[in-house]
Amino acid sequence: MPNDIAFLRGINVGKRQMKMAHLKTCMEAAGFEAVKTILASGNVRFARRDTPEKTKFLLESVIEKQFGFPVGVVLRGEEEIAAMLEQHPFKTLDPEADVARHVLLFDRTLPDGLELEGRPGEVDVMRIDPTEIYIAAYRQPNGRYTESMDEVLKPLRAKLGKTVLDTARNWNTMEKVLK
Length: 179
Fold this sequence. Notes:
Elements: E1 3-8, H1 20-29, E2 36-38, E3 43-47, H2 52-67, E4 73-77, H3 78-86, E5 99-106, E6 123-128, E7 132-138, H4 149-160, E8 166-170, H5 171-174
């Protein structure tokens, strides 16, 4: 049976704390099988159980009931993640560049013809796919990488409003979710 991967939005920041062992137990109690959490940033792989829409609804409901706060979930099938990794959107980056690679995962299809302007030397928009945006963020003199990402994404978020849920992951995390 194939697996799904759930990417939870905005956990383990501020008061929205969630231990991965507790999440695993909660999901198993709700009938999810082969549950495995990946890192502490809200990534969990489990045996596919239903349609993505029904799974997303159930998972969000179970998490809110168990942890006491709503958590948005973006789902991907393992075959989608495998294709994403195979197409490697960062292959044109200089291997010596001090850069953080990120993917924004959306819970629905983005509008056609979407364009985002990067900030040279700070943030490059590598590729925009129907449900993902790939971003390279360069290390700045203050040592940080992602300070300019919000400015680059601001026009997109203004256009989409609250109709589309997104969550960002470091590319290194994406490389781990199928293992």
